[in-house]
Design a protein that fits this description.
Structural class: alpha/beta
Number of helices: 19
Distance between the termini: 57 Å
CATH superfamily of the largest domain: P-loop containing nucleotide triphosphate hydrolases
CATH topology of the largest domain: Rossmann fold
Largest sheet: 5 strands, parallel
Shape: flat
Amino acid sequence: MKILLADDEAAARYGMSRALQGAGREILEASDGNEALAVIREKAPDLVFLDLNMPKCDGLTVLANLREKSDAPMPEIIVVTANDSISLAVDCIRRGATDFLTKPFDVDHLRAIVKRSEDRLRLQHQVDALRQQLSVSGGTFGSIRGSCRPMQRLFTQIERSAITDLPVLIRGESGTGKELIARELHQRSLRASKPFVAVNTAAVSENLVESELFGHVKGAFTGADRAREGVFRRADGGTLFLDEIGDMPSSVQTRLLRVLQEGIVQPVGSEDGIRVNVRIISATHQDLEQAITDKAFRHDLYFRLKGIELTVPALRERQEDILLLANSFLPSDRALSHCAVAALMAHRWPGNVRELQQMIASAAALGDSEKITARDLGLAAASPSSTSFSWEQYLDLPLSEARDRVTQDFERASIGHALEQESGNISAAARRLGIHRQSLQQKLRQLGMTTKLGDE
């Protein structure tokens, strides 16, 4: 990180420089406004402490100059002055300054400002890298695919959440890929070299859940012929993923809460506690708030697990990702027919991505030709006109983007319906829609409905 200290007093620059020295920081200096402008243009500092009262060119002039020169880089600027006038502070902020520091200043406050700027800069670099990754990867984020706005927003949230050590609660319908997200969080965290242990609490017998989570000593119960570590100890230093947390028995919820509070597990049949260092990621498709109201889930455990909450959109809310995912699941020697695309776009996907993956795998295995049809998918009777429409998926978008999305989704449904009615025949579908064949082919490309399609 580059930090520019622009002050005409050498002693002030020296004191600030000593206070801000640190790994990864490059301290630049300027003794007047003109020199500051030159350093900003040549060195592009990330943070500038700008004294207002400098000879030749004062701080306000520097701010005005930077604002007028749109080609010049605009760093984060902290104005430094002995004048604590509120009107002056407002004027500086209006001219582009980020904050206002009054002399004499506290060294800890100065360091806090730099630390905040470093955190912001690091986060911005991560977001930029994520955007670059998505732009060149065709909507692939690690092992997860998605190019729609909700998924890209989720990818950004994963990137930000991964670098913290807070517990994460992942919510979403069954089949949306919650475990994939948990694994991606682990792989992008500082614990990536340590174990990732996943356990589906709903799949474990109620009598054995405590043993599975916390372990047991030999002879703790009938059949315990040897000691067992439990998943907390196996995940020590790493990440523990608790899937279907909403189905956990109440007695186990109490013990889990204690582990989260104290960081100590007590194996079944033992009086000794064992300290563990584990990051908890949990997931559920249940309505936990209703479960709390029904006294089926502890509210204090809920708040312990919900350090960060991520929500995975259902596949029916990711229309533009359906073909991206379907093609990623297809073997290289298979292709989707137009009628198959129409059926895929019309289906409501109650089983989400898992249903799509299994449907494609089954059709590829059992189909008679290289071209997969709607009948191969088991969707021959699907019709876009029979699906329910919901405005909710558009309400969080800017108006212009929502309008474009509504238009695109309607065109997909209308074209898909026409293709299905005409058994995938493009010429006949174009006549049904009242457009030229070439126009329909162009529209199919624009809407992403031609990727890896079989010729009709």
